[in-house]
Amino acid sequence: MTDITNTPAGEHEAQLGDYFALLKPRVMQLVVFTALVGMLAAPVSVHPVIGFASILFVAIGAGASGALNMWWDADIDAVMRRTSKRPIPAGKVQPGEALALGVALSGLSVMMLALSANLLAAAMLAFTIFFYAVIYSMWLKRATPQNIVIGGAAGAFPPVIGWIIATGSFSVEAWLMFALIFMWTPPHFWALALFMRSDYDDADVPMLTVTHGRPSTRRHIMAYTMLLAVLAVGSGFTAIGGYIYLSFAIVLNALFLIGAYRIWQRDEVMAEADSYLVERKFFRLSLYYLFLHFGAILIEATLRPYGLGGW
After folding, report:
1. Which CATH class is domain 1-170?
2. This prediction's pTM
3. What string of DSSP letters covers the chain?
């Protein structure tokens, strides 16, 4: 982390939207959705008011992680095209303000989740914030090309937290949902790194594309996608699956494998524009992939009480 304490102020005072952008609202959407699915897929019902409050506090915790990440990564955000317009490098919000917001929201979200749900859910939320802000952002991201592999666990914890909100305990089903996100994360971000490689070069971030090159990254995407497909389809035969989920999983993973294969067969002599389109298409598909899998889990959980979901 370079010295960012003297980031120049922007021409205008920070607006509410600038502070909201610090919370990474797009990432927050995925956190909220997967945590909600984890809670609703659990075999224990949750009172709607308690459930709404608990998911709200999980969302606030996710936002706190985003603010802490933006505070720490402001120096590399400033040199990456994809992130240069974020509030801190754009001079709209001072680093100290982002740090204060992240710390305050972290404490608030953990404390309130303990009151609305249970201590174990709050402890898992605290660990998730710590994992993303410290283990991933401050350590792994700049230290190893396996940054996104290990760091992906941070984004995989929300459905586990949702399950604990409902049950107060861990379970195999919760960890299956964790594993689905954990295995999805590397091919998702490596595809992004393929068509945004110059950003990571400029920022000196040891993403796999930078340290091992594009051919190796393509092979890794193919390997992880194959393992992900086995896990995703196999989960259809467990307690969180059923005919509906399995149908979704078979179609989605067939498409994902085709996309990974097309990336894998690229080579450096092919037109750069052609490779860019293939990689971007796979990345876009990966965004729908996770939402649709968890949407199918949610459908199964919704229908199960009526004897229509599950096996």
Report:
1. mainly alpha
2. 0.92
3. ----TTPPP-SSPPPHHHHHHTT-HHHHHHHHHHHHHHHHHSSS---HHHHHHHHHHHHHHHHHHHHHHHHHTHHHHTT-TTTTTSTTTTTSS-HHHHHHHHHHHHHHHHHHHHHHT-HHHHHHHHHHHHIIIIIIIIIGGGT-TTHHHHHTHHHHSHHHHHHHHHHSS--HHHHHHHHHHHHHHHHHHHHHHHHTHHHHHHHT---HHHHT-HHHHHHHHHHHHHHHHHHHHHHTTSTT--HHHHHHHHHHHHHHHHHHHHHHT--TTS-HHHHHHHHHHHHHHHHHHHHHHHHHHHHHHHHGGGT-S--
